[in-house]
Amino acid sequence: MYTNIISENRGVVQIITINREDKLNALNVNLIQEIGQEVARLNAEKNVRGIIITGKGEKAFAAGADISEFAHFNEAEAKEMSTKGGKVFNSIEQSEIPVIAAVNGYALGGGCELTMSCHVRIASENALFGQPEVNLGVPPGYGGTQRLAQLIGRGRALDMLITAKSIDAITALNYGLVTQVVGLAELLPTCITYIEKLVGKSPLAIAEVIKCTNALYENQDGLEFEVDSFARSFETPDFKEGTTAFLEKRKPNYR
Ligand code: COA
Predict the structure, then answer these.
(1) Which of 32, 103, 160, 197 is most buried, with most CB under 10 Å away?
(2) For the chain (length 255 residues), average pLDDT per consecutive 10?
(3) Exactly one of 38, 93, 113, 208 is catalytic; which is it?
(4) Quick check: is 113 catalytic?
């Protein structure tokens, strides 16, 4: 069904693997669209509780947008690439099912941007994050300037963006870019366990949490958005089940 990614179901978990190991999983235009299609499908079907995005092999999550593909683009083609790809990255950020980046090596340029569009980043010890675009004569084009500043603060973001320097997993942890660093062999099991633990939480409430948190960055009144979201939730079956289960001293059973 897909040529650049592998999508594998493991019960409540879906693993999307970027499958261009010989090119360090560089993100070509079609590959990004395939990720977008798969995330859209999973959101429509709502059969899984979490999505993991990772890279094939032990060396790279994704070493950036595919330089050989865009090297000859003109302004109009670059705009289309950035706009269409950016929509996919936004759709990952807006996914109502949590998306975890399992960062297994180089996460450079578009690779780093892809991790930042995910809700959670967990890294292996060999992970390396960077936005080296200024080496190529361009700024980032998939939201890197915006999301890096949101996640680690403007000062640290500009330091990385201006110098093109990469940071290792421990520095990323100190910066708050990732929330956990584990050995490479533990990376996927850790991400799978993370998602499996969400089974006891309300999927509707998790979706609302994602929407409310995103509202802060979407020129919306986040506090007002949260009031509406909170109120809306009182009409959901999840609210009834969650509160009833608490009062009946049992575990909730969310559908
Ligand atoms: N786009 C296209 N191809 C890429 C790529 C990218 N972003 N990153 C790596 N590749 C390809 C290489 O061209 C090479 O292909 P080849 O075997 O056909 O020549 C293959 O992946 C392996 O990469 P290589 O450079 O030989 O590996 P390395 O271990 O020596 O170096 C990096 C690893 C990550 C330091 C180096 O590949 C690199 O600098 N990549 C580009 C990073 C970048 O600028 N990303 C931002 C793009 S916007």
Answers:
(1) 103
(2) 97 98 98 98 98 98 98 98 98 98 98 98 98 98 98 98 98 98 98 97 98 94 97 97 98 93
(3) 113
(4) yes
pTM reported for the whole predicted model = 0.98
Q: Provide the residue ranges of all domains of the chain, joining segments of one domain with +.
A: 5-198, 201-247
| Token code pair at residue 191 | 């991400």
In whole angstroms, give the CA distance from residue 38 to residue 17: 11
Dist. CA 60–CA 183, nearest whole Å: 14
| Rounded distance between C-alpha atoms, residue 28 and residue 17, angstroms | 14
What is the 201 CA–ligand 1 centroid distance (Å)?
A: 40
Bridge pairing between strands 99-103 and 120-124: parallel
Q: Cβ < 6 Å from ligand 1: which residues?
A: 23-24, 26, 63-68, 106, 108-110, 132-133, 136
